[in-house]
Design a protein that fits this description.
- The structure holds 3 protein chains of 3 kinds.
- Chain A has 15 helices and 16 strands.
- A 6-stranded mixed beta barrel of chain A has the order 3-4-9-6-8-7, surrounded by 4 helices. Chain A has a two-stranded antiparallel ribbon with strand order 2-10.
- In chain C, a hairpin with a 4-residue loop joins strand 3 and strand 4.
- Chain C is of the alpha+beta class.
- The interface between A and C is large, with 54 and 60 residues.
Chain lengths: 407, 274, 411
């Protein structure tokens, strides 16, 4: 207790020195928090952009369907599972999808397409294709279709064009009907832009003669990184071995690998950032100890034990660390919040980036994570305490007479 | 690239393929080339009918019937795991390159017509009143799970050129001929086996094998009738051996050879009219 | 007052406070070491992405028929003639790879699949084609091969073929007619990239040309350079060669592979921001160290003032000490940074234990060994910046030193 009081008093004896050290620690730790926040923002952008356009976070389908995408491997009586999923607290929205492969034709141009039957209001809560619309509108009542920009170019069709869709219906008959282009989207992913068409679920059910069937339930959850756990939970609750519940990590293994890879790059980057922060702090405390050699000599000659001096110094450093933690935390959170809300717009330099089939808007923004806030601050306090200990160890072994002679 | 399953096209091309095959082997009665020479031992057959002579025989059969025009009514029964379906249609053909087919039944598909000229295929869809040309990449790209491939349609007529033939045995008047693809031939099969009823030269069965010698597909010909003086099997059953309980049976209800059809009968305009 | 005197005294001062000097030099050196290692590793990452990207894709420079990059239509081919030989003779060119690129149909006794057919000259590709390293079965093509193909693993599985087995390739020839040819599988590659593994078929260029009736014609001349620094000069040299062929264009990989370019740009810009933050972190550390070390010397300056040293001399002394410390720190930082970079250039940071398979990164392969690459301009910039930080950090204490009241200071 005495040590604590003394340490506290010592801090304010040399205000300038203490202030400088605290300032350095505050700036370094808040920058570290901001850097981690920006890195988190990049990761979340990669996840968001790769899942939000089409994949969603979790998909429920008949076991085996994802590999072959066979029309008949469908889900019927899917309302209970849809209700179950929508009732989960982790789930934001769930959408039923029916998928068919066929030919889309306009004039003399015909293209093979993936036709996705959706319920527009639900689907728009799950995926963000609606936001990539460049022409027309997203709402697709029966008989209207929203197609990708590259597909539109290949068909030489525009908004209002009347297309024909032909496919093999579930009963073996030849399903065909007219579709009017309601909107055109452009995601930057050649796969979606060149081969995907969105129609109303009931319209597609009718054309493929498969009422009451869907192929997948696409689910959006609140925390995308927790998709595997939520998927496991859904599988457990559904309790139907013929169902397959897959998280985006399973659906998009390449994105997951890229994230793992980024994870390593980020680890290296974080290591360097922490090291730089630590370096500053350590140096600062070595410096302090060095400048106070004379003072230690005085203390020793006044009868303080080396152990007491060590403790005093470590306590001082910890106190400074704690003050910096509060101030740095506040500044860091402020910076994070600003970068979270505003971000740095890079669109002057680069256009939307297509990356592993995902598309980013080139805006760097920060994303919060408790690790990114708590770890830098804890690191700060421990590094401060730790880096004070070594010079304190040396200082306490000083020969008092020799130390005091120093100018 | 996505795996575009497009079974609809399967069934159309399947149909065309069957017609193509049918024309090759239908009306085989005038094939007197080998008549009367059956019934000898295998060894003797090998000697007397060397591969190039067997090939000449097959080629003659092809040539003899490919130039001919025909008109007919047929039913097709398709059994898959998911549905059983019966269709009735009318067809016209001339040579190996010209086909026109119109569905008469079931009502849902009535009027859907297909025109094939050379390697191009068009479909007419009466419901939307549109003609759609099947893009070349889809001609075969869509053949997944199909009992028959587009190759059958285009390449069956080249069998004599692409394969070398060998008479394996004479089983009481039924000749078993093995066809092996020439090394440079662009064919997917590792081997084909014909069973041909002699001396009428009516096919009974054709089996298709992969390169390992595993049978992949079988075609069974039955119900041999005499029409316009020719003996032809009126029923063909195709069985994909990797899909048990699936088959397609094509049956001729009416068939008439040698009718007069101009080439411009097989036009897009006529496709829409049918 | 004379500069040499200041310099001499500054040296002496630094030598006298050996521990303090060491600590400050370490702060500067350590900061620069971290920054240099960071930028060189980042640069290495991009160089690798570019290098693998150009090998798997268009090359550093691609020569195309005008419009091919936009439409990728098979008709947009051109007569290669003597262009490959002419380009190969240009200084800086490592390889010239003529390619035919066609959408095709691959068929076996079991299945049909859409495929992407690439015709290439095996001997030219031998040292550069990225798929050679990815072969999981069989071997790569050779010039003498007749109707041999190297195909992706998923395609092979779906067609149910393996090495030595045959399958039929069908393409549309230049007149729109369908042409088929039987190929035998020479090798099967596995990249882990679904879109490539399930569609790519590589065959000999002449066979692809024969099949599509495009004798002597190509869709792409992919030019690989000895190093990326040749980009500008070779590109303009090729453009000169093309002056009499207005239908052709020579495009850099930035234009031919915009996705890769933008992915790299995105990463690059975000890392610049991280680098900026890193520089702020190390900068504040250095400023802190400097301020503290000079401000603790009030007594010393008071003594000097008391013996009649002019304030200007003191100010210059402090700045000179900072400059010298900065130079020493930067030297130390360069030694450490160069040693670390050299190690990472030679051996890299092997991450194979953490990542199992090859993977896609902006459409190219990812090799899980992080390698550094020299980025001298940024290194120089960082050094200069840190030197300015050192001098900047000494300005305030220098001004303070000149205003010390000797009596107060000596108390």
């Amino acid at each position: 207790m005495l040590t604590l009081k003394m340490a506290y008093r010592n801090l304010w004896r040399n205000k300038r020195r203490t202030g400088l050290s605290i300032l350095a620690m505050v700036v370094a730790s808040s920058m570290l928090m901001l850097a981690i926040g920006i890195i988190n923002g990049m990761i979340s952008d990669l996840i968001t952009s790769s899942t939000d356009q089409y994949t969603s976070h979790i998909q429920i389908s008949r076991k085996g369907y994802p590999d072959v995408r066979d029309l008949y491997q469908s889900l019927d009586h899917y309302q209970p599972i849809l209700d179950l999923v929508r009732g989960l607290p982790e789930v934001t929205a769930a959408s039923a999808r029916l998928r068919s492969f066929g030919l889309l034709s306009f004039g003399s141009n015909t293209q093979a397409v993936e036709m996705l039957g959706i319920e527009p209001p639900q689907e728009l809560k799950v995926t963000t294709l609606g936001r990539s619309l460049i022409r027309g509108k997203m709402t697709s009542p029966p008989g209207q279709v929203v197609i990708g920009d590259a597909l539109a170019r290949k068909l030489k069709a525009g908004v209002g064009s009347q297309l024909v869709y032909v496919t093999s219906a579930a009963d073996g008959s030849i399903g065909n009907d007219l579709l009017t282009v309601a909107g055109i989207f452009k995601t930057g992913s050649s796969h979606l832009d060149g081969g995907l068409a969105l129609v109303n679920l009931t319209w597609l059910e009718d054309v493929v003669a498969y009422p009451g069937h869907i192929h997948e339930v696409a689910i959006r959850i609140k925390k995308p990184d927790r998709a595997p756990e939520v998927a496991a939970k859904i599988a457990l609750m559904a309790d139907d071995p013929s169902l397959q519940v897959r998280s985006w990590q399973e659906i998009l293994p390449d994105i997951k690998q890229a994230l793992d890879f980024s994870g390593i790059n980020i680890l290296v980057t974080l290591f360097i950032l922490y090291l730089a922060t630590g370096l500053g702090i350590i140096n600062s405390f070595f410096m302090i100890a060095y400048e106070r050699t004379k003072e230690f000599g005085l203390m020793l000659s006044l009868g303080m034990t080396p152990r007491e001096i060590r403790w005093l110094m470590v306590t001082e450093a910890t106190l400074m660390g704690l003050i910096s933690m509060i101030l740095g935390g506040a500044l860091g959170l402020g910076l994070l919040t600003w970068f979270h809300l505003h971000g740095i717009d890079l669109s002057a330099w680069i256009t939307p980036v297509s990356y592993l089939g995902a598309t980013f808007l080139p805006v760097l923004h920060a994303e919060f994570s408790w690790q990114g806030i708590v770890y830098p601050l804890l690191f700060l306090v421990f590094t401060a305490a730790g880096s004070a200990y070594i010079p304190a160890l040396l200082a306490s072994k000083l020969d008092p007479v020799h130390a005091m002679r120093r100018v | 690239m996505k795996k575009y399953s497009f079974p609809y096209h399967d069934s159309l091309s399947f149909l065309l393929g069957l017609i193509g095959l049918f024309l090759v082997f239908a009306a085989s009665c005038p094939a007197r080339v080998l008549a009367g020479q059956a019934g000898t031992s295998s060894g003797k057959l090998q000697r007397e009918y060397p591969p190039d002579k067997l090939q000449e025989v097959i080629r003659q059969i092809e040539r003899k019937y490919l130039g001919e025009s025909a008109e007919g009514l047929m039913t097709m029964q398709v059994a898959t795991r998911h549905y059983t379906r019966k269709m009735r249609m009318q067809y016209w053909s001339k040579g190996k390159d010209l086909f026109l087919v119109t569905i008469l039944y079931p009502a849902k598909d009535e009027g859907i017509s297909t025109l094939k000229v050379g390697k191009d295929i068009w479909n007419y869809l009466p419901k939307v009143d549109r003609v759609i040309k099947i893009p070349p990449s889809m001609m075969g790209g869509s053949w997944m799970g199909s009992h028959i491939t587009n190759d059958d349609l285009v390449k069956e007529s080249q069998i004599a050129d692409d394969y070398t033939f060998r008479l394996i045995e004479d089983r009481d008047g039924i000749w078993v001929i093995e066809a092996l693809p020439k090394p440079e031939a662009a064919v997917v099969w590792g081997k084909m086996m014909y069973e041909i009823i002699m001396p009428d030269l009516v096919p009974r069965r054709i089996s298709y094998f992969d390169e390992e010698g595993k049978e992949v597909r079988g075609m069974k010909y039955s119900d041999i009738q005499e029409i316009q003086g020719r003996k032809i099997p009126l029923s063909i059953e195709v069985t994909p051996l990797d899909k048990p309980n699936e088959s397609t049976t094509l049956r001729y209800e009416k068939i008439h050879f040698g009718i007069s059809l101009k080439d411009d009968f097989f036009s897009l305009r006529n496709l829409k009219k049918r | 007052m004379d500069a040499r005197e200041i310099m001499k005294l500054a040296w002496k001062n630094l030598g006298r406070h050996r521990i303090r000097t060491t600590l400050t030099v370490l702060a500067v050196g350590g900061s620069l070491f971290l920054a240099i290692t960071f930028v060189n590793m980042a640069k290495g990452g991009y160089s690798k992405m570019i290098d693998q990207g150009v090998r798997a894709g268009s090359g550093h420079i691609g020569v195309y028929r005008r419009g091919y990059l936009e439409d990728r239509v098979a008709e947009q081919n051109f007569l290669a003639a003597d262009l490959p030989e002419k380009v190969r003779k240009l200084p800086g060119v490592a390889a010239v790879l003529p390619h035919i690129q066609l959408s095709a149909l691959a068929q076996s006794a079991y299945e049909s699949r859409g495929a992407f057919l690439v015709g290439l000259v095996p001997s030219e590709e031998a040292s550069v084609n990225p798929y050679i390293q990815k072969l999981s079965q069989g071997r790569f093509l050779q010039d003498a091969d007749m109707r041999k193909a190297v195909i992706g693993s998923i395609l092979a599985r779906e067609l149910k073929v393996e090495t030595g087995k045959g399958f039929v390739i069908t393409v549309q020839d230049k007149d729109g007619e369908l042409q088929s040819e039987k190929f035998r599988v020479a090798g099967i590659f596995h990249t882990g990239i679904k879109e490539i593994d399930n569609s790519l078929v590589m065959v000999n260029l002449r066979e692809a040309q024969k099949l599509s009736r495009l004798t002597g014609r190509v869709h792409e001349l992919s030019v690989l350079l000895l190093s990326a620094s040749w980009q500008e000069s070779v590109q303009s040299a090729i453009r000169d060669l093309l002056s009499d062929r207005q239908d052709l264009v020579a495009e850099g990989w930035h234009r031919a592979m915009p996705n890769l370019y933008h992915a790299i740009q995105y990463d690059y810009v975000s890392l610049q921001v991280i680098l900026l933050l890193l520089v702020v972190i190390v900068g504040i550390g250095i400023i802190n160290t400097f301020l503290m070390s000079v401000l603790e010397r009030t007594r010393e300056f008071g003594t000097l003032m008391a013996i009649g040293t002019p304030p200007a001399f003191l100010r210059w002394l402090v700045v000179t000490e900072a400059f010298l410390t900065g130079i020493m720190g930067i030297t130390l930082g360069w030694i450490g940074g160069c040693a670390a970079t050299d190690y990472l250039v030679r051996y890299g940071l092997d991450l194979t234990s953490i990542i199992s398979k090859g993977q896609e990164f902006g459409g190219v392969f990812f090799d899980p060994v992080i390698r550094a690459s020299w980025n001298f301009s940024t290194m120089a910039f960082l050094s200069l910046f840190l030197l300015l930080v050192c001098i900047g950090a000494s300005l305030y204490p220098a001004w303070q030193a000149g205003t010390v009241n000797p009596v107060e200071a000596l108390k």
